[in-house]
Amino acid sequence: MSESFFFIQNHRFLLPDLEHMDSQEIHISSVPRPYNAIFHTSGHSTFSWIEPLLASAAHPLLFIDRRLRNSVLSSLSFSGIPCMEFDAIEEHKSIESVLKLCDFLLTGNANRGACCSSSAEESLRMWRPQLPHFTREDSPGR
User: Fold this and answer.
1) Whole-number mean pLDDT of the chain?
2) Are 59 and 93 in contact (CB under 8 A)?
3) Which pTM does this prediction carry?
């Protein structure tokens, strides 16, 4: 039985025997709202699902934690895919960071039908947001 660890805000969590499970989901109590962290582990590299997902997307965009990309995903090829790297730290949970992400999404022509994946070293969760549809002309604050 192998054990896997992950960290959230310097607190160590244990996920036992992930390699033999199709999916592991844990509930994260968070303010203002809780969420589920999903660990994709269907007998292969935890992140091997990313390349097929990006390859199947008509217009992929990647928003990813810098440490995760440099340490775990360095062997995967993201050439030609617009990418915005970020440092997943508390200091970056700000309006300024949100506006940078919005600019990235606008520049990449993302719309409400987009499937977004957000990756952080401490957790991995998939979400399908209902993003408002903006063009450069009707974007708030432009």
Assistant:
1) 68
2) no
3) 0.48
